[in-house]
Structures are given as C-alpha cells and as structure tokens.
Amino acid sequence: MYKPTLDYAQQLDKEDKLAHLRAQFHIPKDKDGNDWLYFTGNSLGLQPKQTQQYIQQELDDWAKYGVEGHFEARNPWMPYHEFLTNSMAKIVGAKPLEVVVMNTLTTNLHLLMVSFYQPTKTKYKIVIESDAFPSDRYAVQSQLKFHGFDTEDGLIEWKPREGEELLRIEDLEKIVDEQGDEIALLLIGGVNYYTGQYLDIKRIAEIGHAKNCMVGIDLAHGAGNISPELHDSGVDFAAWCTYKYLNSGPGSLAGLFVHEKHTHNKDLPRFAGWWNHNKETRFNMRQPFDVMPGAEGWQLSNPPILSMAAIRASLDMFEEVGMEALRAKSEKLTGYFEYLINQIDTASIKIITPSNPKERGCQLSIQVKNADKSLHKKLTENNIITDWREPDVIRCAPVPMYNSFEDVFRMVEKLKELL
Ligand SMILES: *Cc1c(COP(=O)(O)O)cnc(C)c1O
Q1: Nearest-CA neighbor of 201 among 218, 213, 185?
Q2: Of 197, 205, 212, 210, residue with least CA distance to 257
C-alpha cells in the first residue's frame, strides 16, 4: 500500500491530522537553516515552544512572591505536582491515585525496590532482560548486594535464544516455572531500549504473580510511545523518565506507578521524608510520620517546580492530542519507515525490531553488519541524527509528535546512498 516516492510521503503528511504539531517544537537546524532529520526522540525529546513560557511564569511568580509563591503563584507550588497527575495517569493507563511525578528514574526504581524487593534467605533472586539498560542492571545488582546477596547468583537474565535478537515470553515462563521459588522480583523494560521490542506486560505480570514474585516495569522507552495500560496489566510498580518521548528536557523528573492494590498498604517498608507524610499535618512539623495513601506516599522531598513546569508544558500537548491519535500515526509512520528500509537492496543492514506493530513502539533498531560504525558517523555528518548503541545497532525513532513522513523518506534516501 505504501509507495517509495517523495510525492507519496508528502501526500501522507498532507493527510496527517497531527502534522501541525511539528511547528510547535524547536527543530534543530544545520548551518544553512535546514531542519535536522531528528530521530533521537527516544533519547532526548525535542523542546515544545511553549515550554519557555511555562517556566518563565514560575520564574516571574518566584520573583514576585518569594516563598509566598507556594500558595500565591498562579499555579501554587505546594500542590504543583498534582497538576501533572491526571495527564500522566492517562498516558500510562493508570488511576490518578497510582501515579506521581518525582525524582529521576533510577532513584525511583530504588525507592520502589525498597518496598517491593523484600528478599528472604531462599526467595531473593531478581530477573532482568539480558539487554537491560545499564542503569537498571546496576540498580538491581546494588540492591542484591545491599541485602547481602551475591550478584552473580542473585541475578537471572532472560536472554534471546542463540542466533535470535528478540525475547520470547515462553522463555520467561520457563525461568519462572523452574526457579520461581527462588525469585523475589521481575524487573523488566516494557519497551527494550536496544531492540525496540514491546513486551506483553500483562502476561509478564501473570507469569510473575503465579509464583508470588513482585513485578516491576521500566517504561523509559514506553511512556508517551505506546499505551501500556498499567492498571489493567496488574504489575505491582513501574517507573519512567520524562525526557525521552515526553519531551520535558534533559535530566527532567520521572514518573512512578504503584498499583492500587498496594496504595493503601501502610505496612510496606519504605523510606520517608516530609513529602510522603500526610498533607493535612505536614506543617505541624512535630507529628510522628503518617504516610499518605497512593503513589504520593513514595515522595520524599518538595519537588523542583521549574522542571515540573517543563513537564506540564509537554503533558498539556499530550492531553490535547491523546495517546490514541498519536499511536495511530506512530504505527503508520514507523510502518512507512520499515517499508522504505526493506526496499533497499543490501545485506549490510537488518531491522531487528519486531515487524508486528503490536510488539513495538516507534523505534526501529537497525543492525549493521560487522558492527561498522562508519555508517552512523556518515548519517550524522549529513545532519541525520540517530544513535549508535554497542555492539552493532543504529536506533532510529520517528516520533509522531514532530517527525514527518517526509523526514522518514529523506532519511532512507540518504541511507540508501551511503550504503
Ligand atoms: C533512559 C533510561 C534510564 C536512565 O535513567 P536516569 O535515572 O533517568 O538517568 C534508565 N533505564 C532505562 C531503561 C532507560 O531507558
């Protein structure tokens, strides 16, 4: 149904109901003023033009009110994080009670493991994907060590089969079937950062829960990309950053999800600070700690408003567009990208991301034969921004918020030329 011509790509852009969104972002440009072909929204999303105004408003209110801004600012800072909750909950398919924006991703994973990784002498192992993001791997290794376990013995890797790149759910099932009595936690990337594979989160939760293992999902590459329906999936917890598909700026804050079944459990072990203490009595100061219900009960500190203002600017765009429309465009855009790459007659590259749109988000991971890094370098020299991930993959993410069908067409034309 697709056609490999510029005319056709431009026609798709004309028919695209979300095409107007591109103009609401700052698109980096080359020295001649042409837009870069930016395919790294999976690493750092582009800046919405309205972000500056959202941050400026908080700077102005800080100038005007000082500490009184906590109550007097146009968006009072005291409850500011609550302004983000509803839109964020929609993006990940959760109830507002289950979601909060706070800290950064790896920090949230640790705070969640304080509560949901409760090893005993015999049930203490953690399962991750063999291609887990390094920070997640280091985080679980350090949790094992912290609890006095050996990281070799305590870490179980869910690996692709010999000669394959993608994970098979049956293999996770087998691991948990055979070793479930020793496993305390599954911590899995919902969308794998390397291959772009979108795993069946609900099935992972069922597999883990059948053997009384806790199940946590890292959605760094899922939030704003796919619709994970976290509540219905039944996973115990999840966390994600907001600077990738959620366009909220470098190092911005992260999201945290705790399933409703745990949100009122005051007996869960957890770390405390004044921000997870009961809002009503927080400023009485001398009260004994009384934890808040909901995901807010994992907060520790009063949050950075300037960073939250940037998140709010982005979430307001998601709220307006809706994940459904974004996802529909995304499937078409990535489908077109895949079609064009598959038209290239070459044995030097291969897409390793699943071809089923239900098993991927927008990213395609292109494996380069003999791990030849020069192809990525040449793309960059031509203002086509992708990223190289060791050992041999170029990751490209056409993002439905701001990438066009023409972007994808031009990228693949250049790729063909370089090959
Ligand atoms: C991007 C990413 C991180 C980064 O963690 P920070 O704490 O935000 O630095 C961690 N895990 C995964 C899976 C990621 O994709």
Answers
A1: 218
A2: 205
